[in-house]
Design goal:
The protein has 248 residues and is of the alpha+beta class. It folds into 3 domains: 72 residues, Integrase, N-terminal zinc-binding domain (Arc Repressor Mutant, subunit A), CATH 1.10.10.200; 91 residues, YebC, transcriptional regulation domain (Alpha-Beta Plaits, 2-Layer Sandwich); 71 residues, Alpha-Beta Plaits, CATH 3.30.70.980. The protein has 9 helices and 10 strands. Strands 3-1-2-9 form a 4-stranded antiparallel β-sheet. The chain has a 4-stranded antiparallel β-sheet with strand order 5-6-4-7, sandwiched between helices. Strands 8-10 form a two-stranded parallel ribbon. A hairpin with a 5-residue loop joins strand 1 and strand 2. Helix 2 packs parallel to helix 4 and helix 6 packs across helix 7. The longest helix is centred in the first third of the chain and has 22 residues. It is globular and about 45 Å long.
Length: 248
């Protein structure tokens, strides 16, 4: 099971409150704004924007919020200018950590990320130190038994997906980045809506931790995810559902 799905599942279950929903919308607004700034406001000619809009739709973001974010990106209305940065490092026990930051203050973001790695026993690495362990993929996540592995396999293979993994009542479908929309549409035609659809960095190998190392790695990932400038956190951390539940 990929570290991405395990981690995203934990975050989804922990983030069911309205406050978490507000944070999700804030992150989506940043992504849409940056995507529109870099590639224009037409999703047909801007794959990154098209994916961001798919994710916003899956999260039930209001259309007005989406439209304003696009217009800020294209310069039609004034808005904050965000810089995109990736940080890499290791959590306690050696789990690889890759995070995306969108910030209007690079120095602040760097200081906060460095502080969290230090505080929770991790190590902030140099660019390229762990990125080679991850592959950029489209990722559709189905939770709460919304789809079975066999159902997902049949639909995904016909739609051109690359891989399917399952754990408990969660299923994750991986695609080539450019095929995310096509595969998502295939599931929708079958009456199956995913909880999230995004471009993710999926680990090629997973690292299973236990005890203090597992607890320490989870605390580090939680703290990084709570930073306002951090958009997404990926890790090759793998763990049992029972161990994860014990950390809640």
């Amino acid at each position: 099971m990929s570290g991405h799905n395990k981690w995203s599942t934990i975050k989804h279950k922990k983030g069911a409150a309205d406050a978490k929903r507000g944070r999700l919308f804030s992150r989506l607004i940043k992504e849409i704004t940056v995507a529109a700034r870099e590639g224009g406001g037409d999703p047909d000619g801007n794959p990154r924007l098209r994916t961001a809009l798919l994710t916003a739709k899956a999260a039930n973001m209001p259309k007005d919020n989406i439209d304003r974010a696009v217009k800020r990106g294209t310069g039609e209305i004034e808005g904050v200018s965000y810089e995109e940065i990736y940080y890499e490092g290791y959590a306690p026990g050696g789990a690889a950590v890759l995070l995306q930051v969108l910030t209007d203050n690079k120095n602040r973001a760097a200081s906060e990320v460095r502080h969290i790695f230090s505080k929770y026993g991790g190590n902030l690495g140099e660019p390229g130190s762990v990125a080679w362990m991850f592959a950029k993929k489209g990722a559709l996540v189905f939770e709460d038994g919304r789809v079975t592995y066999d159902q997902a396999m049949e639909i995904a293979l016909e739609a051109g997906a690359e891989d399917i993994t399952a754990s408990g009542d969660s299923v994750e479908v991986h695609t080539a980045p450019g095929d995310l929309e096509t595969v998502k549409t295939a599931f929708e035609k079958a009456g199956l809506e995913c909880q999230s659809a995004e471009i993710a960095f999926v680990p090629s190998t997973n690292l299973e931790l236990e005890g203090k190392n597992l607890a320490g790695a989870m605390k580090l990932l939680d703290a990084l995810d709570d930073l306002d400038d951090v958009q997404k956190v990926w890790s090759n951390l793998d763990f049992s559902d029972e161990a994860a539940a014990g950390l809640g």
